[in-house]
Write a structure and sequence with these properties.
Oligomer: single chain
Largest sheet: 7 strands, mixed
CATH class of the largest domain: Alpha Beta
Number of helices: 11
Shape: globular
CATH architecture of the largest domain: Alpha-Beta Complex
């Protein structure tokens, strides 16, 4: 079979398409013929700087895929050859809280990823593809969609009528907007692109802010909420935006901290978190159990992921370059078969 490999710190253009033996499923594992793999920012950053992540060479990149089961290992009773499935980001996190063992099982990092014609996955870490989705659409769900779902529905779920602030218009935020619209939740969305803000309004965003032309956007959020602040922030910026999110959230509100995309040297005032009794939770995807619940909701509501571009398998480098250019709205997908 063919697989793309990270073999050096040379970046996107140093990726190599290699022949590998077809892997064989072991106990409680399945072999999946990959139909599509989507790209997350984490995949791009891993390729750009594999040494910072202490990546072993060679490593197959990408965490997200959907495909068709072609063989099953011993002990497998709940999956059959021919089933369409999605792989879980963490291969060893079925339920409950995160653990070091789970963290060590992330595809496309500690273990080989899925940008290959065939992959072996644990049966506890595959989820049936919603009936109405193509494999390209399904391949977008394991990381960005599930992270957004976790941020909105775990612990204290959002309720209809609440207001959620979504930072940016990347993969997590676009899915979060779709889920908020599905759940009857109002949103305020920021972006540096008026075109992307127009797209997010088409998905149901109630109010939008261009943070390039309105750098004090946290004050604008307060104005939009009559001075109270939003109920929840899906925080993908990290250090560079967190203090503004603290200002923008209401007393007793929640900040779901997902990304670290901005200014790692920025400072925050922890006392402001205390004074407003804010809950700040770090989120890194979610367990398989939550993935299954999300997939069921997506199927029930017939939700379709937003896909910006689809690249052929042999053109994978071009897909990563498109991700790096950051002009996309929605997901970038590599069609494997």
């Amino acid at each position: 079979m063919k697989a793309w490999e990270i073999t050096s710190a040379g970046g996107i253009d140093a990726l190599e398409l290699k022949q590998r033996p077809t892997p064989q499923p072991g106990h409680n594992q399945v072999l999946v013929r990959v139909g599509a793999s989507s790209i997350n920012y984490r995949d791009l950053s891993t390729i750009r700087d594999p040494e910072a992540r202490k990546l072993a060479y060679p490593t197959i990149p990408n965490s997200d895929c959907a495909g068709v089961v072609t063989a099953i290992g011993d002990g497998v009773t709940n999956i059959a050859v021919g089933d369409r499935v999605m792989g879980c980001f963490f291969q060893d996190w079925e339920t409950g809280g995160v653990s070091p063992k789970a963290m060590a099982s992330a595809l496309g990092g500690p273990i080989d990823g899925v940008l290959a014609e065939e992959v072996v996955l644990n049966t506890a870490a595959v989820v049936p593809v919603p009936e109405h989705l193509s494999l390209e659409e399904a391949s977008t769900l394991p990381c960005a969609a599930l992270t957004a779902w976790h941020a909105l529905t775990a612990d204290v779920p959002v309720e209809a009528g609440e207001t959620v602030l979504l930072l940016g218009t990347g993969g997590v935020s676009v899915f979060a907007q779709q889920f908020c619209a599905m759940l009857g939740v109002q949103t305020i969305v920021t972006s540096s692109s008026d075109d992307k803000l127009a797209h997010i309004r088409e998905l149901g965003a109630a109010q939008t802010i261009n943070y390039k032309t309105d750098p004090d956007w946290e004050k604008t959020v307060l104005d939009m909420t009559d001075g109270l602040g939003v109920d929840r922030v899906v925080e993908v910026g990290g250090p560079g935006t967190l203090q503004k999110s603290i200002t923008a959230v209401r007393v007793g509100g929640r900040i779901q901290l997902i990304g670290v995309l901005t200014d790692p040297g920025a400072k925050i005032a922890p006392v402001d978190i205390m004074r407003k009794s804010i809950t700040v939770k770090g989120i890194y995807v979610a367990p398989a159990e939550m993935f299954r619940a999300m997939a069921a909701a997506i199927e029930e509501h017939r939700l379709h992921p937003v896909i910006d571009q689809v690249f052929d398998f042999e053109q994978a480098r071009g897909a990563y370059h498109a991700m790096a250019e950051a002009g996309h709205f929605g997901k970038i997908v590599i069609r494997v078969e």
